[in-house]
Design brief:
Elements (H helix, E strand, L loop, with lengths): L15 H4 L3 H26 L1
């Protein structure tokens, strides 16, 4: 399991500012958003069956 640090908590979170720091940060943000979307998709698929 990886360790994570929460950098922002609000009603409309965004990692755009963090991603603007460079290519490494952009890739981290893309990977995180993809992971969240896949988890949501899996959750929704489980409810349908």
């Amino acid at each position: 399991m990886e360790d994570y640090t929460i950098i922002e908590v609000n009603s409309a979170p965004s990692l755009t500012h963090y991603a603007s720091f460079g290519e490494v940060q952009t890739k981290r943000v893309e990977k995180l958003y993809l992971k969240v979307l896949k988890a949501l998709e899996n959750k929704n698929n489980t409810k349908e069956h």
